[in-house]
Amino acid sequence: GKYGTACRFDGADDYVEFGDSLKTSAQGTIEYWMKIEGYENGSTFHFYENDTTDYIRSYFDSSSNRIDLVIEDDNSAKINVSYDLDNLISGFFDKWLHVAWIQDGSGVSLYINGNKKSLNETVNNGNWWNDHLSLDLVRLGFGWDYFSGVIDDFRVYNYARTKKQILEDMNGGNGSNGGNGALKSPVLHLKFDEGRGATAYD
C-alpha cells in the first residue's frame, strides 16, 4: 500500500461493506489514496439508503477517464461534479493519487495530490452532505460497478479539512489536528493494515 498494506479490488467481485456508524455534520471531508489498475468503470465508494435514488458516491468512468462525485436525494441530483484525470501531467493509470472531496457547506471541491482542481459542474450548490454520510450502508470498491485497483488510508471527517491538513494526511499524519488546538480525528479511518483476513478495522 501507500502506507503499510492496502486493499486491492479485482474489478470483478471485491468490495468492503459496513453499516452506518458515522457521526456527520453539515461539512465534511472524504480522503483516500487510490491506484487505478484497470480500464473498467468502477465505484470507489458508495454511501446510500437506496443505491439508485438516495446516495453519495464517487465513480471512475473509463470511457472519459473522469472521477466524479454525485449526491442524489429522492432521485434528484443535488451535487454532480467531475474531474478529467487526463489533465494530470504525470498521468494517473497505475499511479498513487491522493484524493480529497471537501464539502464546506456551500458546495464540493476536489484536491488531488494536495492541489485544488477545477471541476466540471452540472450542479454544485447547497448543502446536501450530512444526510448522505449517515445512510444505512457504506461500500468501498463497489456501487454500480466494481473498482479495479487499490485503495488505502480511507478517511471521513465531519468538517472541511484545509489544504495544510490535507497535505499532513498525504504525508502520513494521524489526521487529529483540527486547528486551534482542537483534537478532531476522523469519524472513520480504514488503514487496511490488517494484512490478512476478510475484515477491515476502523
Question: What labels would you give this structure?
Answer:
single chain; mainly beta; 44% strand; seven-stranded antiparallel beta sheet; 4% helix; 202 residues
N-to-C order of helices and strands: EEEEEEEEEEEEEHE
Using DSSP, what is the number of strands?
14
DSSP strand content: 35-45%
Give the overall average pLDDT. 83
The count of helical stretches stands at: 1
Radius of gyration: 15 Å
Contiguous runs where pLDDT drops below 50 for at least 5 residues: 178-183
User: How does the overall form come out from the CA principal axes?
Assistant: globular
Measured as a percent range, the helix fraction is under 10%
Cα-to-Cα separation, first versus last residue? 17 Å
Task: Supply the helix-strand structural class.
Answer: mainly beta
Largest sheet: 7 strands, antiparallel
Can you characterise this structure?
The chain has one helix and 14 strands; from the N terminus they run βββββββββββββαβ. The chain is mainly β and 202 residues long. Strands 1, 3, 8, 9, 10, 13 and 14 form a seven-stranded antiparallel β-sheet that branches. Strands 2-12-4-5-6-7-11 form a seven-stranded antiparallel β-sheet, with no helix packed on it. The chain is globular and about 35 Å long. About 3% of the residues have low confidence.
Per-chain topology:
Layout: E1 7-10, E2 16-19, E3 28-36, E4 42-50, E5 54-61, E6 66-73, E7 76-84, E8 96-103, E9 108-112, E10 115-117, E11 120-124, E12 137-140, E13 148-157, H1 163-170, E14 188-190
Antiparallel strand pairs: 1-13, 2-12, 3-8, 3-13, 4-5, 4-12, 5-6, 6-7, 7-11, 8-9, 9-10, 13-14
